[in-house]
Amino acid sequence: MGKPERLQQPVEAALLAAAAEVRAEAFEASLDSAMRFSATDGRFPFVLCGDAATTDAAMKLRRAIAVEQLRFGLYVPGVSSFLPHVTVLYGHTVGAIQESIPPVRWPVSEFVLIRSFFGQSTHEVIGRWPLQMPARPEVPDYFTEMEEWQRESDAPTDG
User: Longest C-alpha distance within the chain, in Å?
Assistant: First the structure.
């Protein structure tokens, strides 16, 4: 969430309005490594991390959200670094690890605004917004092309 600057409405209303204006493409997320993050509170998160393409696509979405939040009076500083990951579990002190794993993939077709209740392991979904499906390449119609080629080759020639 951005920092309020020149807000014209309550923060949650600004977030909802900004999210409704985001235009970004859907993408496939791929998690291809597992690692243990550093502990900040004595718990060591064990996470699956996104590959380079997932990081790039997630960063584009993050920037698109930040641009719209700024339009609605919420400044988002530092949209330069981001590591998409899924936390699998928290554990006690364990040696640092980072391992490649067979990719875990799934389609990312929406983004969600979630209210977190810190320290309670509780979350509330505030809103969901679809991402745009990427344009599909046009599939050639070979039968039509063959018919056109046949007509052209059967056409009488001058001379």
Answer: 89
